[in-house]
Amino acid sequence: MYNRSVRPFLTTRSLAPENQESPIHFLTKPIISYEYFYLRNHFNYPTLKEENFFFSIGGEVTQPQTFHLYDLLQMPKRKVLMLLECAGNKRSKFEPKVYGEQWEEGAISQGVWEGVSLKDLFQYTGLKAQAKEIVFEGYDFGEDKSKGKYLSYKRSLPLSKALHEDTIIAYKYNDQPISLKHGAPFRLIVPHWYGMASVKWVKSMDVVSYSFQGPYQTEDYVYYPYEDSDIDAYPVTTINVNSIIKAPLNFSILKKGEHTIKGIAWTGMGNVRKVELSLDHGQTWMEAKIEQEIKSHYSWVSWTFLWEFHKPGEYTLLCRAIDSHNRAQPMEAFWNRKGYGYNRISEIKVKIEG
């Protein structure tokens, strides 16, 4: 535990809109409180009014309806312990550099979300046979200067993902009402997908029979493999297998002797099967001890490795996670011009003094 008289703080990436990184290297518990949960916004925060406590469901449904927060509180609730990771997490590490918020490693946090499964919610409205996707719109809106127009935040999910039992409309986080900055009163929570899918301040759900083409669906949150071409582009969805070395910090100076290397690892497919470390640039790997502190399909795992440094000098420490689908962190990141999904093998450098 850190000394509470010395507290970590979020790291500011921008103020308008507000984007802040979690102090992930200094957090020791698997459940992250609001004060340390990262913030990712496209616009300024909406002002909460009475109408914000309603959302509508329409389109290709048999019975359009409007729901109030009180309605959801009367329905069967579902709790999901889940991490959220911004698709741009670690963007600052790409080479060549890419434009966008220069996130380091702190655009990730996790906790317990509580709400109602969309699968249960749509039992009240029904779905027509031609239903294909559900378009979610948030109350947040404003000028997107990169696009030169005023927009609201809209994204869609295919029915197969939207109707997963753990895709929920959440109204609580860690047993408390969701805060305004994190999407109150309603936030979509989508397991195993990057955070852009978990729309905040949900205003409406429109069931459509076509593939939604909104700008935050088909322009942003798309992998573009080439600098000057859209060839082979495809959408950002599932979280890549990834890890962070939390301690020691990069470029630390340490004394000769035993040191416990600590970190976290996560994946958007299955679960983390193995975490390995290397001190010889990946020629050989040694397995770390995984500590599953909490039982969840959607959380990170903590890991530790006891290393004894006998000889003074400078060392490069590599870490890679491997999931149950045999996806492993690569030696080189998949470069894409908007800087999404960075998951190159984690690396720190340390100096050992005698």
Task: Give a brief description.
This is DMSO/TMAO reductase YedYZ molybdopterin-dependent catalytic subunit. The protein is mainly β and 354 residues long.
CATH architecture of the largest domain: Alpha-Beta Complex
Strand composition percent: 35-45%
Number of spatially distinct domains: 2
Total number of strands? 23
Q: Give the full name of the CATH homologous superfamily of the largest domain.
A: Oxidoreductase, molybdopterin-binding domain
What composes the largest sheet?
5 strands, mixed
Give helix % range: under 10%
Q: How large is the radius of gyration?
A: 21 Å
Point out poorly predicted stretches.
Answer: none
Strand order of the largest sheet: 4-3-12-7-8
Overall body shape: globular
Structural class: mainly beta
Q: Give the count of helical stretches.
A: 4
CATH topology of the largest domain: Sulfite Oxidase, Chain A, domain 2
Mean pLDDT: 96
CATH class of the largest domain: Alpha Beta
Explain what the structure shows.
This protein folds into 2 domains: 11-235, Oxidoreductase, molybdopterin-binding domain (Sulfite Oxidase, Chain A, domain 2), CATH 3.90.420; 242-353, Immunoglobulin-like (Sandwich). The chain is built from 4 helices and 23 strands. The protein has helices spanning 69-73, 118-121, 159-162, 215-218; strands at residues 11-15, 18-21, 54-59, 65-68, 78-85, 108-117, 133-144, 149-158, 168-173, 176-177, 187-189, 202-208, 222-223, 234-235, 242-247, 252-255, 257-266, 272-278, 286-287, 289-291, 301-309, 313-323, 346-353. The strands form 6 sheets. A 5-stranded mixed beta sheet has the order 4-3-12-7-8. Strands 5, 6, 9, 10 and 11 form a 5-stranded antiparallel beta sheet that branches. β9 and β10 form a beta hairpin. The chain is globular, with a radius of gyration of 21 Å. The two termini are 28 Å apart. The mean pLDDT is 96.
